[in-house]
Write a structure and sequence with these properties.
With about 160 residues, the protein is mainly alpha-helical. The protein contains five helices and no strands. The radius of gyration is 18 Å and the shape is globular.
Length: about 160
Amino acid sequence: MKTPKWRVSGQWLWLAAAAAVTLLIWRNSLFTASESAAQSSYIMELLTPSLSATPLPVESWHTLIRKLAHITEFALLGAFWTAALTRIESGGCPVKKVRVCHTLFICVLTAMVDETIQAFVPGRGSLVTDIWIDTLGAVIGSGISWLILRRRQRMQRHKDN
């Protein structure tokens, strides 16, 4: 079995970033319904001037913004895990699609734990649709990270030749 090359630049940074985002996601799940609503209200207040310029009423943006927050945090998680696993398993090259599958598996498990935590928090609930939304975010983030890593690989190959 090949020993991972831990000296690849940024290795620990990607792992730390993935762990930090995971802990942030789970921490947010521990907020009660009223605490979560207060957070959402604060964000809505910040965005209201911009949202007022759209044809939709400001109130209709509330759910969309909450779901976009799920997508965003899981996109970051997917991007960080893709970068971390690619570097651990291959020493920085080559990027393989199987590593994206590992990332998505980790992200779906994270989403399942997230929703399980919420099932036990007062006023919160667990939604299967949120797991799907989180998975969409992970796919987006992982895909972007994978494309960036592939591009860097190609550029390195051209540079080496």
